[in-house]
Amino acid sequence: MIRVLLADDQTLVRAAFTMLVESARDMAVVGQAGTGREAVRLARSERADLVVMDLRMPDLDGIEATRLIAADEDLAGVKVLVLTTYDTDDNIVEALRAGASGFLVKDTRPAELLDAIRTVAAGEALLSPGPTARLIERFLRSPSMPVSGGPDRLSEREREVLTLVARGLNNTEIAESLGLSPLTAKTHVSRIMGKLGARDRAQLVIVAYESGLVTPGSM
């Protein structure tokens, strides 16, 4: 059972998302937050597996709330899925740097929201390649996230794997592309995260773009 916390300042949005999430047999809503500060508090008290986080909230915005959750060692297993209007939210890359594991457009279809929750809860980054490339191209000049090294620290195979991660491929797709087993692909991804000091696959995408290993428009 995936324990979901919903954070959005609009009551009707939270109510609609609650009905949707509760309709899935493998999910349960364990809390609702109307502010970023409340989201952090409930993440700590309700032990959610995943927070669906709106970026624009009073008291504490979604980016700062995400940063606090990601920095809390007691919440190490909590994933954050950011909600964005895409065309107007200029902070999505900062949210990824803050520790979010992906982003979702607010007008997405209901089934896609449920799939997104499952994807992020399972440890995969939810990053659609096209929008990700455009967003990163637009905001690359903002301050870099702290990492312990760049792709120059990686082996040639690891650089290949990182390139495919940045292009939005999951472990199975990476394995098929490089002729590896899914377990080997997963091992490579884990080793890359360790070498680069990245929290998850979302941050690996940022590193790949900021280092120039992958460039917007190359996918």
TrEMBL record:
Keyword ATP-binding carried by entry: no
Enumerate the CDD domains for this protein.
LuxR_C_like, REC_NarL-like
Record domain Response regulatory: where = 3-121
Under what name is this protein listed?
A: Response regulator
Q: Which residues carry this modification: 4-aspartylphosphate?
A: 54
The record's SUPFAM superfamilies line, in alphabetical order, gives:
C-terminal effector domain of the bipartite response regulators, CheY-like
* Gene3D superfamilies given in the database record: 3.40.50.2300
Database matches in InterPro entries: CheY-like_superfamily, NreC/VraR/RcsB-like_REC, Sig_transdc_resp-reg_C-effctor, Sig_transdc_resp-reg_receiver, Tscrpt_reg_LuxR_C, WalR-like
Species of provenance: Streptomyces flavalbus
Question: Where in this chain does the record put each HTH luxR-type domain?
Answer: 147-212
Q: Which UniProt keywords apply?
A: DNA-binding, Phosphoprotein, Transcription, Transcription regulation
